[in-house]
Amino acid sequence: MASTPSSAPSWHKIQIPRPLQRLFDRFPLRTYEPNDLPQRSQQLTSSDVATLYVFSTDEDARIGAPSFNPGCLKWQTLLRLTNLQFRILPSTNHASPTGSLPFLLPPRTSSSPTSSSPPIPADKLLSYAAQKSTTTTNSPSPTTTTTTAKPPSPKKSEAYSSLITLSLRNAWLHALYLDRSRTALLRALYIAPCSSSRAVQTALLYQLRRAAAEQILSSSGTTKVGTAVGGAGGSSSADAIDEEGVYAEAWDALCALASLLAESETGWFFGAEKPGTFDASLFAYTHLMMEYMPEGSSTEEGEGGRMALGAMVRKAGNGELARHRERVLQAAWPGWEGRREGVESS
Amino acid sequence: MVLQLHVWGPAFGLPSIDAECLAAIAYLHESTSPTEYQLIQTSPSAVPTQHLPALHDPSTSTWTSGFSRIATHLQTHPPPSFSDPSRPSPLEQADSTAYTAFLTQHAAPLLSLSLYVSSANYAAATRPAYSAILPFPLPWTEPPAVRAVMVRRAEHLGMSSLDTDARAEKEREAEERAAAEGWVTVPSALKLGRQKEKGVGGMLSPEQKARIRLEGLAADVLDVLGEVEDWSTLSLAARCLAFGYLALMMLPDVPRPWLREVMRRRYPELCDFVNGFRREVFPKGRTLPWAEDKAGMAAAVVVTRFARGALCEVPWIGEYWSQWWTAKKRRQVLAARGMKNGSSSGMLLLLEAGLGMALVGAGAFFYRGLPPFGEAVQVWRRPLGTLSGLGAAGAIFSGALYGLD
What we know:
The complex is a heterodimer of chains A (346) and B (405).
Chain A: H1 18-26, H2 41-45, E1 50-54, H3 58-63, H4 70-81, E2 86-90, E3 103-105, E4 120-121, H5 125-137, H6 144-149, H7 154-178, H8 183-191, H9 198-219, H10 225-229, H11 243-263, H12 277-292, H13 309-315, H14 320-332
Chain B: E1 3-7, H1 19-31, E2 37-41, E3 54-57, E4 62-65, H2 67-76, H3 90-117, H4 119-133, H5 142-153, H6 164-181, H7 199-203, H8 206-209, H9 211-226, H10 236-250, H11 258-266, H12 268-281, E5 290-291, H13 294-297, H14 299-312, H15 317-336, H16 346-369, H17 392-402
Parallel strand pairs in B: 1-2, 2-5
Antiparallel strand pairs in B: 1-3, 3-4
Helix pairs in contact in B: 1-2, 1-10, 3-4, 3-5, 3-9, 3-10, 9-11, 10-12, 15-16
């Protein structure tokens, strides 16, 4: 019989203990058919209005306040700029079919109580909103998708958008996750909602920090060979990150965006009539930076410390970006005043 | 003392094999007189910043690494003959910043697809180039490390199929697992049927199979760069960086030259830019102020660097080791800038890791010594050395000797 030649015990093959094996011989494992969803499940998981699942807190979700996650806030802003009615609910990445927030659950369809309509991932949100607004209300408002679909200078906007997705994102990641002085904020936003157990929170904090360091290292040019080698999985410590470089790049990026915005007469990027995707994705960062990081962190390393990201936004281009943030806030959240100003400055 | 720019050495007919190093050389060359700086060919393990390009400025005794940081450093602490000829307007400066970020974010992964991810190109062009510029034992540790970083940088593009080494490894592992778990093993001689994919698919190289997607990825990046009508409106730093990436995309002679073909066919203006810039900055016959780093090339130093690199590859320990080493080097760099940094518990961590490893090893050893679960324990005892132990014969003797019974 041609069986495996390696009858010798190997390290990673642990034999099943004999009593256990006898037990399973008598009671073989059997997988039952999955049950159907209960009838009430759709009532519980969906509502009459579309639901956008984002990182948020319960109170914020009730009043529809801006999310504290830049990725979610971008899409939330864009959806608010369309005339789609939706509510938001706090959620986590684990709940999303794509593995990342945000996603939108369409309103309940009364015709079929059990078969629910599939959730819509982030990149299809705008087309969904456009489709809804044309089929149902048919209002005269030209939806923002028309402006976002054809920006006047698409190629240049791509170059500028990497200022947001590279420089600003890295600075945000570093300031929130790796800056030790903001541990309390990080815990309040991302860790405390997940678990009340101390041990789980500690592990989660470590994982988040590691993932953030990994993101910064692999996306920017500050990858250091010495650290990235260790272990095939890639060990990444925050020590390998050139902090000053990250913040200097963020400052350059903000200045560049401010001078680009100053060229536009309409107050929106690339001379658009209405705020578009680019405005929303910049707003997602500037708003959060100004709201959560208004002043410098306490553990500065000599030389009087560096500017906090919120202060950078306020100063870039003589407040050009701060005014842009106000405009977007007015357009998407009319009547909303920065609730957190002064509250979170502890 | 003059400025010292530590860079990867020359390859592919260019002054450096790395895009940012190439850009840094070009920038320094264009803005500063050659008597005021030296180029030193080295590798990241030799400089305290652990990252190239690195600029050592003896006047401020600081180390700066990364191209944009070096350019900023030169602008804020200019050497006597420094003059940046470009005077961009605020909007042009903004454009330059945007294109710099774009190149870092998108051109670098594209370049690493061509030179590092693709196994054929890496084996035939990149790795020999690294071997040529590194002193002897270092080619064993450093190029794989660089490749690992570059592959990780291009991971999000989802083109790992170009890395046939990794795929062959995975297939072999899967086969071994199947052989170990299966009841019946088919000898490899009989496995002709599913040997290797035959037919058209088997004849094509991974690059040819993925050609359409590769061209799409290249177009995503190069379309944006091709929109730039006049490169001279951008700042000198942005132009240098663009040259660094585009030249390495276009010039190296690699066995699977998809990136070069795409550039030559569809973006002649980018090729013109690269050729023009090269003619202007690195004309034939002009020598760059290379200097020999005698201290760094001493045999003992090289062997130490090699040992450090090898230690990083040790599973588990290597991770902690490299973290601790990076933290140490970082403190060194920051100390040179006159900054205080909180001491880290690096050594303690290393000790902990060692202790943990020892414990795990001891535990495993102990576990292996245990008898298998569920089996009756059989204990063999040495028979007593009496005559009755010999059975019937013993009984006879015992009776005969003592006259009993």
